[in-house]
Amino acid sequence: MRQRDSARLLVINPSKQVLLFHFQHKNDALAGQSHWATPGGGLEPGESFEAAAVRELFEETGLKVAAVGDSVAERRFPMMLPSGETVLSVERYFVVHTDNERLSREGWTAHEVQVMADHKWWSLAELRETRETVWPERLIEMLKNA
């Protein structure tokens, strides 16, 4: 099984809410699945996790940072990609605090435009109470240290 490394971001606003995107798959191998997840994505060849975090943050939100700090969490699990390929996903999570809640979709890929249906800033209380699928499953624990 191929390993897919990715950088994920815990983007936190001044109200201590975390940014999540709503993914709704319609026309790929994950058709019918719906979940909320942090911004982020796969590393490009030769790219570090930290550089990917900075790049993905800008591409998916329009927010610019010069650098991110150390990873606050790591997750490893088998995952099916929208292409149908199953990979060993290795995700590292980075915290970014922002005062800017205005997001831009200008850097989105065609696939992201198709599957990223919405975004929301979530409070800890909302995360505890929701019945929706939210990834990563330990997000609340991760946020306690953010």
UniProtKB/TrEMBL annotation:
Keywords: Hydrolase, Magnesium. Its cofactor is Mg(2+). PROSITE patterns: NUDIX, NUDIX_BOX. It comes from the Bacteria. Residues 2-146 form the Nudix hydrolase domain. GO terms for molecular function: hydrolase activity. SUPFAM superfamilies: Nudix. Belongs to the Nudix hydrolase family. This is DNA mismatch repair protein MutT. It comes from Pseudomonas laurylsulfativorans.
